[in-house]
Amino acid sequence: MKQPINPILVTGSAGFIGFHLSKRLLDEGFSVVGLDNLNEYYDSKLKIDRLTILKNTPNFTFIKGSIENLELLESLFEQYNFPIVVHLAAQAGVRYSLENPHQYIQSNLVGFTNILECCKKWKVEHLLYASSSSVYGNNKKTPFSIEDRVDYPVSIYAATKKANELMAYTYSHLYNLPATGMRFFTVYGPWGRPDMALFTFADAIINQRPIYVYNYGNMKRDFTYIDDVVESIMRLLKKGPPINSAAPHKIYNIGNNKPEQLNRFIETLEKHLGQQTQKVMLPMQPGDVVETYADISELEKDIHYHPQVSIDEGIKRFVNWFTHYYKNKQ
Predict the structure, then answer these.
(1) Which end of the chain is flanked by fewer CB atoms within 10 Å, N or C?
(2) pTM score of the predicted model
């Protein structure tokens, strides 16, 4: 694609996926405006360290603010007239959504409505937005296909992500807003979120604390390495918006297409850390699902990409980053 004159907006640019995507865009010569409220859901020092890397790159502008602030968003869209918006900002976390539902309504529904309204008003050429594998709930058919019904979410977080897809489709239908939804499957890797299993397990193992394993380890996750996720987003962005007479809207699964047993995941982490750990086996937690497994046939068909990084290689890269990052923080 020909690079746009105006910058791309990446919301949630200090977050895990937002940071990696922004860096890739900048490395390829795109201009990026990053928006993030740097909330305290997890250690903001990690977000600030990510941002420091981005700020040292030409063509990056950072704005601290929330997507719930419509006035701020309108001023940014007016100033920059973004051709492409990659909307990754959201209140994340399945279990946290059971304790703080209002936070999810504000960020994931009110904030997303603000993004849609601005994209409509300023005639954005392509909106790419984050959804989640959690929309599949306890879907019994595997692999999970974008053709499957996703009407039975098992967490507030999942419900808000399903709502985002419906809202985006409606705006596409009513206002011809080109939009691509991306259902991410358990993304992991360097600079990852501290509330995710890989991070919490690594921290516990290094500090010789037991790890808590839910559903007695009888779970499978389609762990997807961050570089594979970013490559998929970049290809979708360069491919351009969906073309559909009814509504220029399409959803893709972005996963590894190879679910891994949680116990094997832990064993691989122990191997690369060079330490064993004590496991505390616990029952299933509310909001959790037994298995996730992405059917990525549509993604492969449309952008000709299949994930490249194995779970062994991905965990190895994470451990290298994790031990170096926290060694330097001591």
Answers:
(1) C
(2) 0.95
